[in-house]
């Protein structure tokens, strides 16, 4: 054993602290969103069947209050949940939360003015100029602020996953695009579809990042 | 690269999450270093050395057996 006695004795059992976990807050948030969705769907089904359902915002508000109460209960139980974190960790989770918020706002804006909740309607439905400007601003401003902040607060291990995932998604552009372009020039392929390549690059980025981070 | 991180952590009765908090990195980072899937950067290696009060080369082993004269 190469560990010195002094080094081994640096641990004081009294130092052992109760560590709040991020898992419970994430579970509470997802459970609240899931229950809100289930409640909204159930109420819509009730109305379609001719039943007398309470207004969706009231039920959604009640579920939200329940989720908030569960979160408060957890935060009171673990005490130093937020203040016990380092500045880096607070900024890191703040960035992730802001990114989720931008995503949620984007979906709300993208489907404003329609009752169609399908993915196809959100991705390909008609969009008003106002909604389009808001979405573009959310995407550009949100990412311009969040990405540099995120890159500053991630740890070594995540930075490696992030950079390798970025490189992998870059290859999705530089490898197929020239091949696709020459095939299109020869009339053997349709024109280059930028959105398809974007989604493919995004998927590759996500898979490589998650694999390197959590394998 | 081999390392003794798991042993050192166990001797102090720390969980991966506790060690991660002390290093201000994620638990996944500690796990990846312990399992040899990721070699830490030099600043993080120094941080580990300071935390365990040991030289870096006692925590990490790159498998090189020769002396500096061999270079």
Describe the structure.
The complex is a heterodimer of chains A (215) and B (71). Chain A is mainly alpha-helical and 215 residues long. Chain A is 73% helix and 0% strand. Chain A folds into 3 domains: 20-84, no CATH class; 87-153; 156-215. In chain A, helix 2 (23-48) runs antiparallel to helix 3 and helix 7 (156-174) runs antiparallel to helix 9. The model of chain A is unreliable at 1-17 (pLDDT under 50). In chain B, 54% of the residues lie in helices and 6% in strands. Chain B has helices at residues 5-11, 16-23, 27-34, 42-52, 56-59; strands spanning 2-3, 60-61. Chain B has a two-stranded antiparallel sheet with strand order 1-2. The mean pLDDT of chain B is 89. Chains A and B meet through helix 1 and helix 7 of A and helix 1, helix 2, helix 3 and helix 4 of B.
Helix content of chain B: 40-55%
- According to DSSP, the number of beta strands of chain B is 2
Strand-pairing-aware structural class of chain B: mainly alpha
Terminal Cα separation of chain A, in Å? Answer: 29 Å
Shape of chain A: flat
Range of helix content of chain A: over 70%
Q: What is the CA-based Rg of chain B, rounded?
A: 13 Å
Rounded Rg of chain A: 24 Å
Order of helices and strands of chain A: HHHHHHHHH
Query: Which percent band covers the strand fraction of chain A?
Result: under 5%
Into which percentage range does the β-strand content of chain B fall?
Answer: 5-15%
Shape of chain B: globular
How many distinct domains of chain A?
Answer: 3
The main pleated sheet of chain B reads as: 2 strands, antiparallel
Strand order of the largest sheet of chain B: 1-2
What is the helix/strand order of chain B? EHHHHHE
